[in-house]
């Protein structure tokens, strides 16, 4: 009788544990960029708008997963919402280059096959994440850049827009401020080695990239990232978002990863692949691996954040900035959205 | 007396071991591309020409190291020789895109600082490896693409040439053959899924990339890669060479790596960083790590090779093709150059 009682306790404990594990099985994680995001600088309206679109994006991807579609479909549907919303530095709402253009980068990767696609510097594709997916699925290549990538997207049947579609007043004003501040900074830097460098002198305009990692019912992971890059960027600068291994990487055996932040540091540290390798070769959890990889960026002087999701539904969302727009949804549809630390 | 004799034997044994270790300390390794390189298809004159330029390239870099200059200087000097020689698919002698242009990619990385620079799709810079180095040293960026990268190289004071400089008859004829064979292949592929893919249909024209890893007297590693990419490439396709972590990576704590081959597979496997991570996280030798990373490429259906050099002067040069133009030089100046298996 005593042993039966013990068995019953054990049984119900395991049941509870199982339910709790079920509830904590994440199937999607998204980010809308990391940076100097402070509550004191935010209006209640703006905050509500961010939360609303992050929630909408999660729901769009979750609907794909629930209907049995692939994690790639979920990532694409989710990122479409974020690209089409002007609040984020991706698709409509992308920042401007020094020359007043919107040059967009994106990448996507399939954790099951390790197939990947990316585009950099496209100017006419409404949804760059779909261009990245087309490169992966409709070409034998992984990366295409510039007008060639635009041409490919057109031939692949994607929606092409006039470059003016990407114009927003907020980003245009941001470029004017950046140009002004950079020229002031160049004067202040006079005599400093920094002033001899060609390129961006102000790093406060580099955030707002969007990304998503999803886990579908078949157990396959996919990861995607889309960005307008850095405000006032020159010389065809490309950041980490479209670089497989740096800003975007996905492998069913380890995790899917999408990064956001000061891209140069993410490339130099090959951040996304580092996370996967720390899991594969050192047996670390997705959380431990993500923290170590972000610490490498931080120690070099870089800042930003990242999202990662492993095949068991464990999630990591570290960042070393004031805030990161982010959200998760679990297998049972529970949504959590956060902005600040 | 007996113990003195034993001591003497031990002493001389250690001395011999030390000398042998000294002789086997490599300070540079280079490649000029991997591919279907068969002795039966090679004339003695052509073979001699390849051996001569590979030897000259090794000597150029070695002279830098011997004079106390940095491994970055050695890599740049070595790759200049290979870029300026029309035998290799880099700089002069680069293959043509589908549109009859030469679009050049290059990357360089400093193992001491993990600083890196890369360019993709430049058309007017005589030595793309120097453009990559300028991005690393004279900008705050890591990667620049297209005409922006050309403009940057010009402003950085590099030698600019008319795009015609890169034209060679052999490569032009190669493009005409590739276009003809691709159109034939497209007909043969009719009904096959492959024929629906946009892009290169023939993979026999992807080789000839050049690369170098050097170890200087201060113990610092540097790695660089330069390429014209794939013959008949379309849509602004970019391969692994300019992708930090894939075709090029360097870290004093592990190794410097430069890859050559079917770039798409190298990107999907993030090959160069994988080698570094296998060394750092699994404690493997540069040789073991290089073989495992290349095996991943091979298992997916990709082919090519790579060179790697660790901080102790151990070298690895695996390839899964018929041949790879390659060479090494040891600390005491001994040169070895090979082409076939």
TrEMBL record, chains A, B:
<dbReference type="Pfam" id="PF01112">
    <property type="entry name" value="Asparaginase_2"/>
</dbReference>
<feature type="signal peptide">
    <location>
        <begin position="1"/>
        <end position="21"/>
    </location>
</feature>
<feature type="active site" description="Nucleophile">
    <location>
        <position position="209"/>
    </location>
</feature>
<keyword id="KW-0732">Signal</keyword>
<dbReference type="GO" id="GO:0006508">
    <property type="term" value="P:proteolysis"/>
</dbReference>
<feature type="binding site">
    <location>
        <begin position="237"/>
        <end position="240"/>
    </location>
    <ligand>
        <name>substrate</name>
    </ligand>
</feature>
<dbReference type="GO" id="GO:0008233">
    <property type="term" value="F:peptidase activity"/>
</dbReference>
<feature type="site" description="Cleavage; by autolysis">
    <location>
        <begin position="208"/>
        <end position="209"/>
    </location>
</feature>
<dbReference type="GO" id="GO:0016811">
    <property type="term" value="F:hydrolase activity, acting on carbon-nitrogen (but not peptide) bonds, in linear amides"/>
</dbReference>
<dbReference type="InterPro" id="IPR000246">
    <property type="entry name" value="Peptidase_T2"/>
</dbReference>
<feature type="binding site">
    <location>
        <begin position="260"/>
        <end position="263"/>
    </location>
    <ligand>
        <name>substrate</name>
    </ligand>
</feature>
<dbReference type="InterPro" id="IPR029055">
    <property type="entry name" value="Ntn_hydrolases_N"/>
</dbReference>
<keyword id="KW-0645">Protease</keyword>
<protein>
    <recommendedName>
        <fullName>Isoaspartyl peptidase</fullName>
    </recommendedName>
</protein>
<keyword id="KW-0378">Hydrolase</keyword>
<keyword id="KW-0068">Autocatalytic cleavage</keyword>
């Amino acid at each position: 009788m005593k042993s039966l009682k013990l068995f019953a306790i054990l049984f119900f404990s395991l049941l509870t544990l199982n339910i709790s594990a079920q509830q904590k099985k994440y199937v999607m994680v998204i980010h809308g960029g990391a940076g100097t995001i402070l509550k004191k600088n935010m209006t209640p309206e703006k905050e509500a708008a961010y939360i609303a679109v992050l929630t909408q994006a999660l729901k769009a991807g979750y609907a794909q997963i629930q209907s049995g579609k692939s994690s790639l479909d979920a990532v694409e549907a989710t990122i479409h919402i974020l690209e089409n919303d002007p609040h984020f530095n991706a698709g409509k709402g992308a920042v401007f280059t020094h020359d007043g253009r919107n040059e967009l980068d994106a990448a996507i990767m399939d954790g099951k096959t390790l197939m990947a696609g990316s585009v950099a510097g496209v100017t006419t594709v409404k949804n760059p994440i779909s261009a990245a997916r087309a490169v992966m699925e409709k070409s034998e290549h992984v990366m295409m850049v510039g007008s060639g990538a635009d041409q490919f997207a057109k031939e692949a049947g994607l929606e092409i827009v006039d470059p003016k579609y990407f114009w927003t007043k907020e980003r245009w004003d941001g470029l004017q401020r950046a140009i002004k501040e950079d020229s002031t900074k160049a004067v202040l830097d006079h005599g400093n080695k920094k002033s001899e460098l060609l390129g961006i002198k102000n790093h406060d305009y580099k955030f707002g990239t969007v990304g998503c990692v999803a886990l579908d019912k078949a157990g396959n992971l996919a990861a995607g990232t889309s960005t307008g890059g850095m405000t006032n960027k020159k010389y065809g600068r490309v950041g980490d978002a479209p670089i497989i291994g740096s800003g975007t990487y996905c492998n069913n055996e380890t995790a899917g990863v999408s990064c956001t932040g000061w891209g140069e540091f993410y490339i130099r540290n090959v951040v996304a692949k580092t996370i996967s390798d720390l899991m594969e070769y050192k047996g670390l959890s997705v959380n431990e691996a993500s923290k170590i990889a972000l610490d490498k960026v931080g120690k070099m002087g870089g800042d930003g954040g990242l999202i990662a999701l492993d095949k068991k539904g464990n999630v990591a969302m570290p960042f070393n900035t004031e805030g990161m727009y982010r959200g998760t949804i679990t297998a049972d549809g529970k949504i959590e959205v956060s902005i600040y630390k």
